[in-house]
Automatic annotation (TrEMBL):
CDD domains: Type_II_cohesin
GO molecular function, one term: carbohydrate binding
Keywords: Membrane, Signal, Transmembrane, Transmembrane helix
Protein name: Uncharacterized protein
Presence of the UniProt keyword S-adenosyl-L-methionine in the record: no
Domain of life of the source: Bacteria
Length: 241
């Protein structure tokens, strides 16, 4: 009876040991939830946790909704050495799949950033970014020790409509040309008359500026003219008689 109990106990322990997973390392994505607007870009970080077992090579397969998202770029974390062979390096935005593979010199034994993916939101909707089943993490014996992985929920909203502010046009003010004021000819005539009087005055003073002398000369000329005309008239009368 006792022997049977011991056998049953050993069998249960063996079954439990076989049931324990041989995998240890995990992949995780962060942040867990992302909210963006259509047309915006965002980043998702892929982290590796070896859980105490050295990880030498890691292959990540990301699955995402191709109608909502597209991969814009990917950057490996520090120390990772990329493998670019066919089947290990792929970005398929039409199918919604990205594959990146790299080795870690000396093996990664503590949590490390595998890489950062930049996505662009193509249209509004909800989707999931997840680590695909073809992902792998290899230890020193080249055994796949991947144990688990996480996913990211993405909510894309419609862009905020741009409100165009209407401005009231400023009315154009027409300025009438100023009329040229009419210049009266009267001042000019007065100026001409003033000039004539000045000329006569100048003649009367004979350029000396002495009005008395000028007046005397003019009077003498008038008297002489008078006698001259009178003398001529007498001669003319004598001839007729």
């Amino acid at each position: 009876m006792t022997k049977n109990i011991i056998k049953i106990g050993l069998m249960n322990l063996a079954a439990m040991a076989l049931a324990l997973p041989v995998f240890a390392a995990t992949f995780s994505l962060s942040p867990a939830n992302i909210s963006v607007k259509q047309g915006q870009s965002f980043n998702a970080v892929i982290s590796l946790n070896p859980q105490g077992v050295k990880n030498y090579t890691a292959k990540v397969e990301l699955k995402y909704p191709a109608d909502l998202l597209e991969v814009k770029s990917f950057a490996f974390g520090d120390k990772w050495m990329p493998l670019s062979q066919t089947g290990y390096d792929l970005v398929d935005n039409a199918g919604g799949t990205m594959i990146k593979t790299a080795g870690y010199p000396g093996g990664a034994i503590s949590a490390a950033t595998f890489g950062t993916v930049s996505f662009k939101a193509k249209k509004n909707g909800n989707g999931i970014i997840s680590v695909g089943n073809n992902s792998q993490i290899f230890d020193a014996t080249n055994a796949n020790i991947l144990n688990g992985f996480s996913q990211v929920s993405v909510a894309i909203s419609a862009p905020t409509p741009t409100i165009t502010k209407q401005t009231t046009p400023i009315p154009t003010v027409s300025v009438s040309p100023s009329l040229t004021p009419e210049v009266s000819a009267e001042p000019q005539a007065q100026a001409n008359q003033g000039g004539l009087f000045a000329t006569i005055g100048g003649a009367m003073t004979l350029g000396t500026g002495n009005k008395w002398l000028g007046g005397f000369v003019v009077l003498a000329v008038v008297v002489a003219g008078y006698y001259l005309v009178k003398k001529i008239s007498r001669k003319f009368k004598n001839k007729r008689s």
